[in-house]
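Retro notes (design track)

What went well: tokenization of the new backbones is finally stable.
What didn't: we kept losing track of which sequence belonged to which structure.
Fix going forward: every design gets posted as structure first, then sequence, in one message. First example under the new rule, 458 residues:
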């Protein structure tokens, strides 16, 4: 894939970028490595000051950045702006909390280990290679980079090939804020050149947010190099609605949960599992609100749904729906590619999705919702847990026993009760099963790329 900005609203290539040569990649790895040696000896207070400045810069640049996001991957401009501001908040969160999250932990009773003093401390690992997707071009990168740099690590960013302007902006952000040059360096390279970078001895660990095949490939290379890996992969999150739920609220959140970011969110609710007592009412209201979403130019403030980010992504979604319809799924609304330029897909609601259809097991990365009818909570849980994914989940109920039962038994990295799955800097984020390994955000996220060092004194 060429490294280029291709506007998904028009389908036109706006700008192409030359990949970095091998010599340029070598120079950038060396810069990140040199920056690590400088950064590791700075104090938390110093890094926090720079991190807060980086947050300020993001806020100052919000309009420029929101436009880059919208032009490169089609996110409606209001959401793009919100993404930039969320990044600033995330960076400040780590500026405020990193020192406490990484504070040394002395053992209460060192005599038990024959020591006068013993405990643990966290040390940075070094250069971390981050392979990132286009769907939240700033947030995915900064939720890695904020904690990584606050811990004293540095980063190499291999961003998705269709968001080069975002990648180039990020290349200088931390330097502008005061961090040593090379604290986060962008590598403009195709996926095929990631392996060589990961095998470089100066690169100590890696993280990938993206698809399952990419994650498996990266993890197998990291495994052969015995390098730590964090994977944030796909999801097909269940959204369960039980009879006691506040139905109107569940419906309106369901519409947002499925269609945010044009349906291209790993933690979007994708499978709506509804108790038969409220099924008909849910589907009717849900369909009506999905059909009312405004599809159009993502640069317009009032647009709800813009184009999908890539032509291939749109074609894949079209094929998944065609497969389901050919095997008997019922289209309540949407189900078509509109006759207009750009890579649009109509917001869609499908019923009667069955196990032989691709959509039953695969992730739908676009505005397509599958709704399932279930008789009781056991059936809801079995269906929810039936995919290979385990990212997040949502349950709508006002029954305390049911709430606890789902929280305990859903196989997912998170359970949101009566609300929409979202990432918060304060809460760990990540999946199980084929949705990934490791955690980002909160204390768990900053500790992922640290050496948990035991120190014992006789
Ligand atoms: P993708 O094709 O896997 O691309 C993601 C990144 O990986 C890009 O930088 C890509 O580079 C690179 N890449 C692709 N194949 C690779 C390989 N074999 N080795 C090394 N790097 C490789 O994913 P996508 O389709 O752009 O993104 C959508 C997927 O990401 C969805 O499945 C979504 O659910 C998932 N996602 C997960 C999370 C989470 O937190 N769990 C968050 C957001 C998205 P090129 O662009 O150059 O190919």
């Amino acid at each position: 894939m060429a490294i280029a900005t291709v506007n998904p609203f028009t389908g036109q290539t706006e700008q192409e970028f030359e990949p970095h040569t091998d010599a340029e990649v070598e120079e950038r790895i060396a810069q990140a490595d040199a920056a690590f040696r400088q950064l590791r000896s700075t104090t938390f207070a110093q890094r926090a000051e720079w991190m807060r400045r980086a947050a300020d810069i993001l806020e100052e640049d919000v309009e420029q950045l929101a436009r880059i996001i919208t032009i490169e991957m089609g996110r409606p401009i209001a959401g793009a702006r919100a993404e930039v501001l969320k990044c600033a908040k995330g960076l400040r969160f780590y500026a405020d909390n990193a020192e406490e999250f990484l504070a040394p932990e002395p053992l209460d009773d060192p005599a038990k280990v024959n020591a006068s003093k013993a405990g643990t401390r966290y040390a940075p690992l070094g250069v971390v290679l981050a392979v990132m997707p286009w769907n939240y071009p700033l947030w995915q990168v900064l939720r890695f980079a904020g904690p990584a740099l606050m811990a004293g690590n540095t980063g190499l960013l291999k961003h998705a090939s269709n968001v080069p302007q975002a990648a180039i902006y990020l290349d200088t952000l931390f330097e502008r804020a005061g961090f040593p040059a090379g604290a986060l360096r962008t590598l403009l390279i195709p996926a095929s050149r990631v392996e060589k970078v990961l095998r470089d001895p100066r690169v100590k660990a890696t993280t990938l947010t993206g698809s399952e095949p990419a994650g498996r490939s990266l993890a197998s290379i990291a495994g052969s190099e015995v390098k730590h890996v964090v994977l944030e992969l796909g999801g097909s999150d269940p959204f369960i609605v039980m009879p006691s739920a506040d139905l109107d609220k569940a419906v309106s959140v369901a519409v947002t949960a499925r269609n945010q970011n044009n349906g291209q969110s790993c933690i979007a609710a994708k499978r709506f599992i509804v108790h038969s007592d409220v099924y008909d009412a849910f589907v009717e209201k849900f369909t009506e609100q999905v059909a009312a979403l405004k599809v159009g130019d993502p640069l317009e403030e009032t647009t709800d749904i813009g184009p999908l980010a890539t032509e291939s992504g749109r074609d894949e979604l079209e094929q998944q729906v065609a497969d389901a319809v050919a095997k008997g799924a019922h289209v309540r609304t949407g189900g078509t590619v509109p006759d207009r330029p750009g890579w649009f897909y109509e917001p869609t609601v499908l019923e009667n999705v069955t196990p032989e259809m691709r959509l039953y097991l695969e992730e739908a990365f676009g505005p397509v919702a599958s709704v399932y009818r279930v008789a009781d909570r056991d059936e809801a849980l079995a269906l929810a847990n039936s995919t290979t994914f385990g990212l997040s989940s949502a349950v709508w109920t006002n029954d305390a026993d049911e709430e606890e039962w789902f929280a305990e038994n859903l196989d997912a990295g998170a359970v949101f009760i009566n609300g929409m799955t979202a990432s918060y800097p304060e809460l760990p984020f990540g999946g199980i099963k084929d949705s990934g390994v490791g955690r980002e955000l909160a204390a768990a996220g900053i500790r992922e790329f640290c050496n948990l060092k035991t120190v014992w004194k006789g």
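Added context from the reviewer: The chain has a mean pLDDT of 98.
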